[in-house]
Amino acid sequence: MPELPEVEHQARALRRILEGATIDRAEADRTPVLKGTTTPASFAAALAGRSFEGIERVGKQLLLAFDGGAGLASHLGMTGRWRVRAGDEGPRHGRARLFLRDGRVLDYVDVRMLGRLEIVPRASFAAIVASLGPDPLRDGLDAERLAARIGGSGRPIKTVLLDQTVLAGLGNIQVTEALFHARVHPERPANTLTPAEIAALAEGILATILHTLAVHERDEEIVYLSDRTDAPNPFLVYGRVGEACPRCGKPITTITIAGRTSPHCPRCQRLTRSDLRRGRG
DNA sequence: CGACGCACCTGTGCGC
DNA sequence: TGCGCACAGGTGCGTC
């Protein structure tokens, strides 16, 4: 569920919460969330008594650094989140928890357990960062850079943008919104985009990330948009199939690409036979 | 290399 | 009211 803006929102919240904090005790349940060699026992042992030294986010990865060279890599998957406990009782679907010296408890909550927690040496953070493409928010993005990343790939632009080694942090919503901004059909072969379209896409990527982040930052706490069923849909086309395109009024339609729903405007985001032919050739 | 299905998981909402 | 199914903002594997 979380994409770059949600993960950034979490990173900022965790930075505030953990500033100057020490972990007295840590627990993780035996669930598929624990990856690699991490077990409930090694999770507890690696984090007990550690003081927090920093957090960085790259793409959808959260990397927490502690003293003594210890690190915690946290990927939220579809439904993961960190939250500070309000009462004594742990939240539903809590999978791990950090008991801070000042009495607060930080819970890792993950309904579907598609997220990941892994104890890794801080020294390995660089390798994780290196395995991902540039992060639009951290590293910036412009037309030239995006063109270089897309390269000559004839794959659908949507598939390319979802590839975390091309750009880090984009997910189905952000890609959907960015393509709408740039008026580019999700199935357009990446190598058929004009320089103007690539420029518009770079702009669209940054615009949708900043917009989504701003919506999240209205909440001090870690709250997901989907938590608030009362809140209006903040997106232009995502979640709006059948509604009128905000630009031209034509109903938003959807197709499936790489197994993901891809809402788009059939008029603003055209795909021609010639595009497909040029992409293959 | 790339497209595709499937697996990993649970919860929710919708149609019958 | 209940059941079954499709679907959900992610990733990684095996297979053709």
TrEMBL record:
Top-level taxon of origin: Bacteria
Keyword DNA damage: yes
Gene: mutM
EC number of the protein: 4.2.99.18
GO biological process: base-excision repair
Domain Formamidopyrimidine-DNA glycosylase catalytic: 2-115
UniProt family annotation: Belongs to the FPG family.
FPG-type domain location: 236-270
InterPro entries hit by this protein: FPG_cat (IPR012319), FPG_Glyclase (IPR020629), FPG_N (IPR035937), H2TH_FPG (IPR015886), Ribosomal_uS13-like_H2TH (IPR010979), Znf_DNA_glyclase/AP_lyase (IPR000214), Znf_FPG/IleRS (IPR010663)
Cofactor(s) essential for the protein: Zn(2+)
PROSITE patterns with a match to the protein in the record: FPG_CAT, ZF_FPG_2
One protein family per Pfam: Fapy_DNA_glyco
An example Gene Ontology molecular-function term: damaged DNA binding
Identification of the protein by name: Formamidopyrimidine-DNA glycosylase
Quaternary context: Monomer.
Keywords: DNA damage, DNA repair, DNA-binding, Glycosidase, Hydrolase, Lyase, Metal-binding, Multifunctional enzyme, Zinc, Zinc-finger
KW Membrane (keyword) present: no
CDD domains assigned: EcFpg-like_N
